[in-house]
Amino acid sequence: MAKTEAKILVVDDDVDILNTARMYLKQQFTLVQIENTPENIPLHFDRESFDIVLLDMNFRKGENDGSDGLKWLNVILNLDPNAIVILITAYGEFDLAVKAIKAGATDFITKPWKNEKLFGTITSALKLRQSKLEVDKLKTTQKTISDDIDQKFENFLGESEPMLRVFSLLKKVGPTDANVLILGENGTGKELAARALHRQSSRSNEVFISVDLGAISETLFESELFGHAKGAFTDAKEDKPGRFEVASGGTLFLDEIGNLSMPLQAKLLSVLQKRKVSRVGSNKEVSIDIRLVCATNMPLYDMVKEGTFRQDLLYRINTVELRVPSLAERKDDMELLVKHFMNMYGKKYKKPNMRIDAATLNKLKRYNWPGNIRELQHAIERAIILSEENKLTTNDFLLQTSSQSESSADETLNLTEMEKRLILKALDKNNGNVTRAAKELGLDRLALYRRLQKYGL
Ligand SMILES: Nc1ncnc2c1ncn2[C@@H]1O[C@H](COP(=O)(O)OP(=O)(O)OP(=O)(O)O)[C@@H](O)[C@H]1O
């Protein structure tokens, strides 16, 4: 009969017991080692990773209160927290066995034992060992995956005033368990902000689960979020936990929350209130412990007034509100972001040391970026791919919407409005330098200052 794959260490000061155990166990398992001096246990663990340790409770002659066994049990669990220890007790030592199991032993066996009983005890303990190792492996895999994802998201850049305010709020709110609602236009970095909150929380070693509510169909909503039991519907071939359950212990990020229909808002609210979910097709409720972060680019407050977003749901998710500014509001970050993406795509497309001239940077600053950072990121990627020299020029950027918006802006015939726009344009072009902007406008500095005051600029 093939031996079962397992490494077993038997520790007892009775050499007869050791030899009997070894003789029998060697026929059943792939590796069996024996030791009569418990002080040598660490040496064995240095050389081998044991699946099971059979450990005597009473070592020194005359001592039979089990304190020695408990001490060595502790040593073994320190050497390997996943160790499976089966204690060898004398007949009638039940109290001691209970004490040992509370201290972390897996099972006990009384001597003299029957071989079948010993085999059965070891076989079921081995199953536990395998699950513990599997959980460990899954945890490591999960950590590697989330570290990997986090790396992609760790660069949340900004040095402009509005971004410094965002960072300061993130720092204050991150470590709390407060529900956070992140508002902002598309592509402003709302998901980055949510991940930054998670990284700064006490849950940072747990999962961050992101759900795009805009991408989940009405019919799949419940099964995706709350899970389903086997047979709940035709495609439910097996039990499956939903995102709420998977995120338990960590952070759940619900993106595009403004896109939820009223019936789905009611379902979501009920789960958030109860902090419990039941999988579709099951009556059993599972408690969930999540930190909730939601995001949207929709005007939730207006939607509440119109009756398309539930006020009670809004109050549940917006304990703290954070607004990520649009790129147009943080033009001071343009250079930093442009250089960051140039560096990123320079590496990706093997075009290192790319430069950008001032005129091109100014063109990028003047453009409105309706798609925000995502649009900027794509524009730089495209420019790097298309560029023929190691310098990005205005020709590498096709900002058509920009010229449209610039020309439509010029269509206004209101003189005051025109003057205001020209001043802003001149300032923008000259990086906020009043002297140079004034010169370009044909004004002296004082005259420009007076106009800035007049228009509240
Ligand atoms: N401050 C920033 N620094 C660096 N990169 C950024 C920054 N903000 C956003 N990005 C990048 O812009 C892209 C869009 O960011 P993100 O997905 O977080 O935006 P979003 O607001 O969640 O978008 P949507 O509303 O479309 O879901 C990502 O590639 C992200 O890495």
From TrEMBL:
Response regulatory domain boundaries: 7-126
One GO process term, biological-process aspect: phosphorelay signal transduction system
4-aspartylphosphate: residues carrying this PTM: D56
InterPro entries, A to Z: AAA+_ATPase, AAA_lid_NorR, CheY-like_superfamily, Homeodomain-like_sf, HTH_Fis, P-loop_NTPase, Sig_transdc_resp-reg_receiver, Sigma_54_int
Entry coiled-coil feature ranges: none
Protein name: Sigma-54-dependent Fis family transcriptional regulator
Organism the protein comes from: Roseivirga misakiensis
GO terms assigned for molecular function: ATP binding; sequence-specific DNA binding
Entry keyword Zinc: no
Entry superkingdom: Bacteria
CDD domains to which the protein is assigned, alphabetical: AAA
UniProt entry tagged with the keyword Nucleotide-binding: yes
